[in-house]
Structures are given as structure tokens and as C-alpha cells.
Amino acid sequence: MCLKCHGTGRAQCMWCNGRGRRMQMELCQHCYGNGTERKNNVFEFITDQNSEFSSDLFRNVKGEKLVMDEQSKVSGITDFPDPTIIEVSQNALEQHWTRFSSCRVLRQRQSVERLPLTRVQYCWKEKQLSYFVYGTESKVFVQNYPKKCCCVVM
């Protein structure tokens, strides 16, 4: 059981100490006057996975939003070029409704993002190597960089 919320899924807001208001009058912008923090339940799916690239790295970059829907209850995606996305959307919402049917769901958000990932292969000292450029910020990930000093990948 979670020690912070004792299994309720809510914890006292640390910004207003559970009062819902700051400085007696101003509505707390962190908990929206509720006095408690709520947990967001997240489902993520990545269609193309590369065993050499950790999908966790995508959490720190931005992509291009292709679909964004946020309301009290979202519907599954029905019109998308990739049928895998349609299927995953339907399954994720079904799992969410089943898992949280006894909970109070305030809002749901569903989005599809295109996160660029490019694998660059090169040869160094007669050895075939590669690195990845990912996200719209063009961050670089090298799994086994051959030399540990004096060189920067730009």
C-alpha cells in the first residue's frame, strides 16, 4: 500500500496543505481547490521498437502531435493510417475502463505522437558502429561509444 495516500489514490496537496486555497483566498492552482493530489495513470505504446535503443529515452524529448483528444471520457481512435494504433487505442481504453470502473475519473487524454528516430551507421578503426539521433531536438544516444574522451558527436 502506498504510504503517501494509504491506498486511496489521493494525497494531501503539498502546496496548500489540503486546504484547497492559498493565502486564505486564492484557489490552489496545483490541486484546483480540491485539497488532494491525484494520480495520473498512463498507458504508453511504441509501434517500432529497436532493441539497441531504449524507449525510455523518448520520455525526455518532444515529437510531432498527430492526434490529441482530452475530455471527461475519450473515444478510441477510429481513423488512422496505421491499424496498429487503432487497435492499441481501443484496447488501452477498454483496459482503463475495466481497471478504473470503481474510481472517479476526472479527465482522459489520448494522444499519438511521431517521435523521430534515426540510426546512423559508421566505420571507425575498421569497426562497424552506430548511434541514434532522436526527438525533434535531435538528441544523440550512443550505446557503446568507442572512445571516452576528446570527441563529441554533433
What does this structure look like?
The chain is mainly β. The protein has 3 domains: 1-37, no CATH class; 56-115, no CATH class; 116-154, no CATH class. Helix content is 11%, strand content 29%. The chain has one helix spanning 83-99; strands spanning 10-12, 21-22, 26-27, 36-38, 64-71, 108-114, 117-124, 127-134, 139-141. The strands form 4 sheets. The chain has a 3-stranded antiparallel beta sheet, with no helix packed on it. A hairpin with a 2-residue loop joins strand 7 and strand 8. The model has no long low-confidence stretch (mean pLDDT 81).
How do the SSEs run, as a string of H and E? Answer: EEEEEHEEEE
Number of domain modules: 3
Mean pLDDT across the residues is 81
Widest beta sheet: strand line-up: 7-8-9
**Sheet with the most strands?**
3 strands, antiparallel
Distance between the termini: 46 Å
- Our count of helices gives 1
Structural class: mainly beta
Describe the global form: extended
Descriptive key words:
154 residues, mainly beta, 3 domains, 3-stranded antiparallel beta sheet, two-stranded antiparallel ribbon, 1 helix, 9 strands
Q: What is shown here, in short?
A:
By secondary structure, the protein is mostly beta strands.
Topology, pairings included?
Layout: E1 10-12, E2 21-22, E3 26-27, E4 36-38, E5 64-71, H1 83-99, E6 108-114, E7 117-124, E8 127-134, E9 139-141
Antiparallel strand pairs: 1-4, 2-3, 5-6, 7-8, 8-9
